Amino acid sequence: MKTAWRALVGAFSMFSTVPCPRVRWDEDTNKNILYFFPLVGLLIGVLWLFWSFLAAWADFPVLLTGAGRFVVPILITGGIHLDGYADTSDALASYGEPAKRRAILRDPHIGAFGVIRTVTLLIVLFALNCCVGNLLELWLCVAFSFVYSRALSGLAVAALPLSEESSLARSFAGSRQTVGLLLESILAAALMMAASWKIGLAMTAVGILTFLGLKRTARVKFEGLSGDLNGWFLQKAELYMLLTAVVLSLLLMKLRIGGMV
Questions:
Q1: Residue 153 DSSP code
Q2: How many whole angstroms separate alpha carbon 61 and alpha carbon 138?
Q3: CA nearest 192: which of 136, 137, 120?
Q4: Does 52 reside within a domain?
Q5: Residue 28 lies in a domain
Q6: Whole-angstrom Cα distance, residue 75 to residue 71?
């Protein structure tokens, strides 16, 4: 029980801005942190839902509603995954050998491509959050996607080969986590499909495809997974799932209006 508590606190201390009590860190704590990583996503999902309900009740303008949804994940995470996205974008834009890409990841400075691609990501995320609308099943799918993306992210650390330079990712790795994180991924996907089987199934498939893309990128372009690369994956997974949810919901709405479904 004490190990579980320390791992829970460790997960929120590492991956969120939530104030946490100080706990003793040891090897068991590190090995169990990833089990609780999806709970950070659950908190984001709950707050994202709260803002959506509040905005609908108060009849906020679309831009204000979308802005609130957009900033919730950033406020809770402090942008830790955006940092990995920017660094990885710079590394991928170099078109160099894996060793050169890994060296760019270790560089604390951000390059032009990191800025350009991160700003583009944020603009698209903001626009998509403004397009979500007031469909409850869509809200639930998006809220659970924050849990799903983090379960897949943890699964990547537990299951994929790690970069030799990635001390952060390696400290959390452990084969005994793989089954648990896989089950958490399945549970999160099931909750999305329970909210809306069509939208949830499509988002689940997109998450899996993005995971497979991460596996190939890590192997071919970096010769191993790192914390930055995993943050890049998480941001891409959430972007693609939100895009899928918005586009599919709009398509289904048009089909209903046309009497085709």
A1: H
A2: 19
A3: 137
A4: yes
A5: no
A6: 6
Q: What is the DSSP letter of 160?
A: S
- Structural domain count, the chain: 1
Residue 81 lies in a domain: yes
pLDDT digits (tens, 9 = 90+) for 58-112: 999 999 999 999 999 999 999 999 999 999 999 999 888 988 998 898 888 889 9
Domain membership flag for residue 41:
yes
Task: Tokens for 216, please give them.
Answer: 């190939």
pTM of this prediction exceeds 0.90: yes
Structural domain of 243: 35-249
What is the C-alpha to C-alpha distance for residues 165 and 103, in angstroms, rounded to an integer? 9
Amino acid at 28: D
Q: How many residues does the chain have?
A: 261
Q: CA 59 to CA 62: how far, in whole Å?
A: 9
Tokens for 219, please give them: 């192997």
